[in-house]
Amino acid sequence: WNVLLSFSGLVALIQLLFLPFFPESPPYLLLHKGDKAGCLKAMKQLWGEGNYHTEFDDLMKEKAITKGTKIMNVLEVLRDPSVYPQLCTMLLLILSLQLCGLKIFQTANLQDSTIPYVSLGVSISELISVIFCSSIIDRFGRRILLCGGYVLMALILVLLETSLLLSDQFLWMRYCSVILIFLFIIAYGIGP
């Protein structure tokens, strides 16, 4: 497990070493820094030689639309009372997702030998949700994915509570609880 966990650190180190050799994002250069020449240069560097005037014109239109909008840093966002409901919702979702797995694994009375496999399953569930969501978000849109994700999460939580209540009577219900946790993570990744 030490090797498996350190692998993500190795990948991050490789990314950190090669990151300075990549150009900035063209939208960032144009919209935030106002560097038109740098934007065109980055487009050519990223996408090869070609005529990118349509993409550049689209970025210029976006810049004109967002011209009056102030870009806020993290502290400014945290001080803005108009975003408190969204921040509270996000914080509650993140905290509940982090804390629910631990209690459920304790309640399900899983053997210590199966915990590494459950952890691996959680990671695989997150990967599946990222791949699945990125492939369907353009087709269905964010609103449907959000609403569908919340409905699926609610249904899965009802089934999960039922399986936890029955886990003392039926030993196989413990594994149903673990599968439902995986499904919950996938529904969370696809929706919210």
From TrEMBL:
**Has keyword S-adenosyl-L-methionine?**
no
* Database matches in PROSITE patterns: MFS (PS50850)
Known Pfam families for this protein? Sugar_tr
Keywords, A to Z, come to: Membrane, Signal, Transmembrane, Transmembrane helix
Name all Major facilitator superfamily (MFS) profile domain ranges.
1-192
Q: Which GO terms describe its cellular component?
A: plasma membrane
Q: Which domain of life is it from?
A: Eukaryota
GO biological process per UniProt = D-glucose import; dehydroascorbic acid transport
Coarsely, its chief localization is membrane
**GO function terms (MF aspect):** D-glucose transmembrane transporter activity
In the bilayer, the protein is annotated as: Multi-pass membrane protein
State the InterPro entries in the record. Answer: GLUT, MFS_dom, MFS_sugar_transport-like, MFS_trans_sf
Q: Where are the transmembrane segments?
A: 117-137, 143-160, 172-191
Q: Where in the cell is it found?
A: Membrane
This one is known as: GTR9 protein
- Organism this protein belongs to: Sclerurus mexicanus
